[in-house]
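Sequence in, structure out.
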Amino acid sequence: MLCLLAGCKGSEPTEYETGLENLKKQEYTQAIENFQNAISEGGHGVQSWRGIGIAWTEQGIFDKAQEAFTTALGLTERSEKALKTDLYFYLADALYHQGEYQKCVETCEELLKLQKKKDAYFLRGSAYLHMDEYKKAHSDFSRVVSGSDDYEDYLDVYKVYKSCDLNADGSAYLESALEIKAKSAEDFYNEGRVYYYLEEYAPALVYLGKVYLDAGEPQKASDIYQKCLQQKGLEAEGYNGLAYCSVKQEDYTGALSYVEKGLKEKDKEVQQALLFNEIVIYEKQKDFATAKTKMQEYLKQYPADEEAVRENYFLQTR
C-alpha cells in the first residue's frame, strides 16, 4: 500500500527503454546517449548497439551506423538467427549508402545464408548494378519481382536503374508492373505512378480519375475526366469516366449521354467498356427491356465476356 501511495522507484523506465522511446520520437542524439548509458550499465548490449546504429542511420551518418551494427553482430550469439539477419541487413544498407558495394554484396551473402530475404536480393542487386555487374543485378532483381503483385517492388528496381542512368533497362520492370491487375484505389494510384515514370502521362491521368472514384470523390474524378477530353486519343476514356461519375451521382440520363458521346469516338479499346456500362445504366433505371436488348447485342460481339454472361442470367429473371 505504501508503495502505491509513495510511488515505486522500480517502475521508472530503464536507459534502454528510454532510448527506444526517444528513437520512436526521432530524438536521435538523446536516444544514442540513452543506449550508451545502457551499455555502460551492462544491460541490453546487442539491442543497444542496434539502436545506436539505427539512430545514426536515420541521421544519414552511415560510417558510425556501420560501426554500431558491426559491434552488435560481434556480440550476437550464433543461435540468435532472427537478430543476426536483422543486423546484417542494416549493416549491408549502411555499406551500400557509403558506396562500399563489394562489402555490401558480401554482407548480403551472409544474410542470405540465414534467410532468403527479398530485401537482401534487392540490396545485393542494387550493389551489383553500381559495380556494372549487370547480369548478376538482373538475376537478383528477377527474384525480387518474381510472382510479385506489389507495385513498389517494380518501382524500386526501376529507380535503381534510373540512378545509374539506365532508364531503358529499368523501364522493362515498369512494363511488367502493368501486368498486375489493379483492384483497389491504391492499385490504380500505383498504376498511374508506373505510367508517370514511363512518361506516358495520358494513361496516368485516367488512373488518377479511377483513384478519385474509388475514394468516393466523383466530383474530383469528373474534373480529371474533363481534362481527358482535352487530350487527343483519350476522349472515349474521358466520356466513359464521366459516365461512371454520373452513375455515382445517380444521374443516369447524363451517364447515358456520356456513353453515347464516347461511342461516337469509335475507340476500339474503350468501346467494350462503354457498351457494357450502357447496359448497367439501363438496369439502374429499371429499364430491363432495353437492358436485355442491349445485352443480346453485346454478347454477339463479346461472347467470351464471363461477367456479361453472368449479368445476362440476372437480366433473364427480371
